[in-house]
Amino acid sequence: MKEKLEGTGFAMPKKNILYIIAGFVVMLLGYALMAGGGSDDPNVFDEGMFSFRRIVVAPVVIIVGIVVEIWAIMHIGKNGGEERK
Fold first, then answer.
1. What is the pLDDT of residues 35-50, one digit of tens each?
2. DSSP of the chain, one letter per residue?
3. How far lies 2's CA from each of 6, 60, 83, in Å?
């Protein structure tokens, strides 16, 4: 016989957890955009590490991911956090 226990679910709805995962993926994309640009020879200067993608785009993508994370944690649905079944 199964008994349904009240309050045994997660602290956040499934939708919010999916938003958290999406924010994490966006942040990983930003870090991937920032990677590379170094020189193989330490005596040769490479301008590649100062590209627009690494200086502007990647940090903006990471900040967007952080904003998505904060929103996903703080967001309460229209029905007061109760999930529909």
1. 877 777 888 887 878 8
2. ---PPTT-S-SS-HHHHHHHHHHHHHHHHHHHHH-----SSTTS--GGGG-HIIIIIHHHHHHHHHHHHHHHHH---TTTTPPP-
3. 13, 49, 21
Note the pTM of the prediction, 2 decimals. 0.76
Give 30's contacts (C-beta < 8 A, 6+ positions apart).
58, 59, 60, 61, 62, 64, 65
Dist CA 44 CA 50 (whole Å): 15
CA–CA gap between residue 61 and residue 16 (Å, rounded) = 20
